């Protein structure tokens, strides 16, 4: 015998956000079975539990629908994977229509939720609630292991993966693992080369909408975070926080192998690959591998030939903004990095750091081939070591396209190419003698000025070249 239980739906007041997820519309009401059949042999108490699980509360003879965001139909779609609502612009699918409406704001740029303290706007109400806690400083959830506090409990769960080392999401293409599913989805786009979002100003393309949003701040100047010390501006506050460490000198991230410390975590991760020789980023054009993604991005510009940064003084173009900034110092004469020992100034910090090794005597790169026989021959720059190793292997990767002659290092090839053209762009202002290389001109100038000559302390003989000077010193040593 089957009894028919008449269902009366009453919706008194439901807290609704602008997305309409918590609002019950007519379609949702009709989707509820108005004639629920209750079998005589079924446990009424068990049936009540099922009703609660579906979002109902049994109050006497009537059933009231909770103000929850997911109906029974939505739960069913979660299991089947069906997404009936799709975006007309990017074809992304959604289970709920409110999720689609929320997604459309990424295309329209609509931000209906505004912070009453700083007037910052957001596309989602949840983002506003999270932002408000940044003003109040409220962080009610903390890690049981290290005590770090978070605004949301979900952030604690993600943080715990750092302690456990768990990375449950793996790429089926390359096998790389991730702690977050969204990180995996973002990584998968590297293999598909899918870039749906492009900048209307400069045409640069991105795989994710939020990356494009951050990029647009460069053009609009909106919501930039400025450093109070040097005035430099950043599109992301986290990047500003990392930048502040350069002023404070704090280096909280250290290498577990050699103990070297870094101000930023990704620098420590990249440095660790120098010990492991891991190069996870490879060029699809020439298969050359790199330790960091930024190095790969720089390399790709060699293939594309893109040099968007133009010098307004001489017209020379560069692939990076930092390269242009360094180049402009040649015109302005600015040398912001000065040696405290000898007072010599430098355009780039990297060059300054290399110069400091001439005072400290540090030579961190050792040749394992001849170092055992020739008193540990070492080098101040890693590139010099790489070039030196080629003298042992006789590798000559740089070839002249005119005569086919090969060289160990690229500068030697560049110098050789000028021999075919008879080009001598460097001229002495005193005697008008011309040279193919600037270094040759510098050596020649010592004849006129006498500056930079190498003098023997034993016999007072002077030399233009250090190599000749060192050879002469060994002659005295052998005689002694």
TrEMBL record:
Superkingdom, taxonomy of origin: Eukaryota
Bias kind Acidic residues: ranges: 33-44
Family annotation (PROSITE patterns): ZINC_FINGER_C2H2_1, ZINC_FINGER_C2H2_2
A Pfam family the protein falls into: zf-C2H2
Source organism: Cyprinodon variegatus
Main localization, broad class: nucleus
Location of this chain's protein in the cell: Nucleus
GO biological process, one term: negative regulation of transcription by RNA polymerase II
Protein name, UniProt field: Gastrula zinc finger protein XlCGF57.1-like
